[in-house]
Amino acid sequence: MDFRSIGLFGRYQDVAVKAILADIQTHLEHRGRSVFLGDTTHQDIEGLRIEHSGKPLSETIELGIVVGGDGTMLHVARSLARFELPVIGINMGRLGFLTDIPAERLHDDLDELLGGEFEIEQRMMLQARLLRSGEILDERIALNDVVLSKGATGKMIEFDTRVNGEAVGRSRGDGIIIATPTGSTAYALSAGGPILHPLLPAMVLAPVCPHTLGQRPVVLDAASTIEIELIDLAGEHGNIFIDGLDLQPVIGSEILQVTQAELVARLVRINSHNHYEALHSKLGWG
After folding, report:
1. What's the CA gap between 18 and 43, in Å, rounded?
2. Is the overall model pTM greater than 0.90, yes or no?
C-alpha cells in the first residue's frame, strides 16, 4: 500500500506541537504526498483542512498521522476506525504505548513508512452500552478500556459482575476496568492486570482496589458479554469512562454492558518496531 494522501492530527489546540506538525507537513509534501490537516490540529497551522475538502473523510485521506500523546491517538484512532483508515502516532517524549515513531527518528521512520516497510495491525475495540430499565442511555466505542469508577466519596461502591449471563460475584471497592489487549498496558496495568499481546482476542477484567484478598484480574475470551450491575454507589453519582473520557454519571440503577465491537482500529507499525523492546523501554524491564 502506497499512502498518497495523508491526514495530520495534533493534540487539540496545543501550540507545542505546531513546529513538528509543520515539519511533517513539509517532509511529506516534498515526497509528493497530499497533506490535509485534521480537526484536532492547531488552527494557526496553514494548509488544506480535511473538513474543507468537500469529500468524505474516507475519500480525502488514506492514512492518519497523530502528533501528541495517547489521548489524542485514541481519539483519532476511534474516529478513523469508522472509515477503516489506518493511523500511526509520533511520540512526543511521553510514555505512549500507542505512538510508534519517536520524535528523534521522525524523518527516517516516515521515509520507511512511505517506502512500504510497515504492517497494519487490527486492534480489537469494545462496545460499551449503559442501560437503565432495559433502555440504552448511551453507547460508545473504546480502544483502551471501559471503566466504572466511584464518584466524590471516600467510601467503597458495590456492584455485581456477570459474564455471558453467569454470575462472577458481588464486589466492593473503587470500581472495575474492562480493557482490550491494547489497553492492558494502560489503567488496567496500574490495577495489577496482566500485559496481553496487542493482537490477542481477549479482554481483561480488573477490579480497582477490591475489598478482598481473593479477587484478582481475569482474562476473558473476546466473544464474552460482560455486565456490571450497579448496586450501591455510596450516596454519590458514579462515573463511566470510555478511554478516559466521561460517558455520563450513573446513579446506581444502571447496567454497564461491554462486548467486543464490530469495528477494529488499524494501527500502522513500521518494520523497525519491536513490541517487546517497547515494553522494555517504557516499563523499565531488564
Report:
1. 9
2. yes
